Amino acid sequence: MADKSHVTIAETATIEEAFRRLNANMLGILFAQDAGGKIVGAVTDGDIRRRMLTGTTIHDKVAACVNRNFVWARAGGPREQILKLLDQRVHVIPILDVEGRLVDVFSRELFNLSDESEVFARARSPVRISFSGGGTDLTHYFVANDGGAVINATIKMYAHATLRRRSDARIRIYSHDFRCTVEADDLAELGTGGDLALIKSVVRLIKPTYGFELEVSADFPVGSGLGGSAVVSSAIIGCFNEFRSDQWDRHEIAEMAFQAERLMLNIPGGWQDQYATVFGGFNHMEFFSDQNTIVPLRLDTNIIAELEESLVLCYTGSGHDSGAIHRDQKAQHETGDAVAAAAKQKEVTRDIRRHLLRGQLLECGRLIDEAWHAKRKFSSKISSNALDAIYDFARQHGAVGGKLLGAGGGGYFMFFVRPFERYQLIAALEQRGHSCSRIMFEENGLRTWKSRFPARSA
Fold it and tell me: How far apart are CA 282 and CA 299, in angstroms?
């Protein structure tokens, strides 16, 4: 605002001094203060001249000309209130604090914006469950076998990322899940290996030209089989994308997440995780050597609700090493059993798609069981005696079918169960020591946005 001395005047000052200040501030108004600094009224050129017509002189005190019934606004009040006053009959509005002291002055030409706020980028990316086809989305498979196909859907469990740009080149990355902090003076010093290698790989791919602070967290455990690495990567990419003028599209973000994990870190795996978390919802995906096709499945809302009531997530109590499973799967993919199992997976995927769209969910549950038994033939590391025992136990207590999510080897089982048998299955599994939870589907994929907070005081 303008210098307060140009817009305020003591009640005890002379009218001559008031004229001098009115000429200096060019606003045509002054605000009179009492001895304690409280604004008690307004004084305009017209107010003074009207009083002088009645005999007041320039040597008299301002108090004689003060309009004590003046318009003002409280500091911190809504901007639209001030704009409405200015839109009516008032040309200049004093902004007063709770003690009546002047904080600012707004006019039709002078309306101070709030101080610049600190801007954060945020992102939230959902995990996925897969119904069938996992393993056929591996590059070595679909290139040699005329394509791969999967059906998956995102659920309401997320990876979260928050990014703040710095004015220098320093980098600070914190993972809440690993309780680990990595700091570097600049991008070159960040390095590649060691702690938080995946996050470093994503950052090196993006090559930001500024320093930053990044925090990442997840709603799911490491090695869950829910596509967590891709979910974390896409959330980070989404944050950086918020600061770009030419933003990457969804296909580009999924491909970048694939590149950071599969190519730069050389971690084996398929393609579905990256596309699922970025696109969101129910998708039928096909993979070929020249292109990937993502086809959203438009399911009736009642079908989705019934599917939510028919599925149970069961945590096995242990994570898995998806890279090791995929390496073994690649070594075994040309054996007769593996080739036949992959062909069965693609066949089941087509059938599940048809039954899902028609709401024939019991058939889907039976087909998920078929898909699981076919997938187990990809690699001996996909299941184990302990995992088979959990699956058999669930089948004995009401599960129609199920499968380990992700590569296998641990993480979450997903079970399909008939009505009126859901809770007996959950009770039996929990009595056995396995935590169970509901599935709620998420129709949106990666979400990114900016948020503003007042800048930190010095």
Answer: 8
Helix, strand, coil abundance in the chain, percent, nearest 5: 40, 25, 35
Same-domain check for residues 274 and 296: yes
pLDDT tens profile 213-240: 999 999 998 878 888 999 999 999 999 9
DSSP state of 129: E
Paired residues of 165 in beta bridges: 212
Task: Decide: helix, strand or coil at residue 324.
Answer: helix
Q: Do 92 and 127 lie in a common domain?
A: no
Residue 114 lies in a domain: no
| Phi, psi values for residue 151, rounded to 5° | -125, 130
User: In the block, which residue shows the tokens 């992700």?
Assistant: 406
Task: Find tokens 């008690």 and name the residue.
Answer: 40
Residue 301 and residue 310: Cα distance in Å, rounded?
14
Could you say which of 107, 131, 159 is where a domain stops?
A: 107
pLDDT tens per residue, range 267-298: 888 999 999 999 999 999 999 999 999 999 99
Domain that holds residue 50: 4-107
Residue 448 within any structural domain of the chain: no
Domain count of the fold of the chain: 2
- Phi first, then psi, for residue 381 (nearest 5°) are -85, -10
CA 133 to each of CA 46, 91, 129, 162, 429: distance values in angstroms, whole numbers, following the listed order: 83, 70, 12, 33, 26
Residue 188 lies in a domain: yes
Q: Are residues 362 and 275 in the same domain?
A: yes
- The rounded distance, in Å, linking the Cα atoms of 92 and 86 is 7
Q: Is 54 in the same domain as 125?
A: no
pLDDT at res. 184: 97
- Same domain flag for 9 and 47: yes
Residue 173 has which token pair? 């990355």
Q: Which two tokens stand for residue 182?
A: 């990595």
- Outline where DSSP puts E strands in 328-394: none
Q: Which amino acid is at 412?
A: Y
- Residue range 318-375, pLDDT digits in tens: 764 555 555 655 555 556 577 788 888 899 999 999 999 999 999 999 999 998 988 8
| Same domain, yes or no: 89 and 153 | no
Integer-rounded Cα radius of gyration of the chain = 33
Q: Which of 58, 79, 107 marks a domain boundary?
A: 107
Whether 273 and 408 map to the same domain: the answer is yes
Which residues lie below 8 Å from residue 57, measured CB to CB, with a gap of 6+? 15
Cα gap 39→444, rounded to integer Å: 54
Instruction: Indicate whether 115 belongs to any domain.
Output: no
49 with 127, same domain: the answer is: no
Indicate the helix (H) or strand (E) that contains 167: none
Find how far residue 293's CA is from the centre of its chain: 25
447-454/117-132 β-pairing: antiparallel
The pLDDT tens digits of the residues spanning 86-110 come to 888 778 889 999 999 999 888 877 6
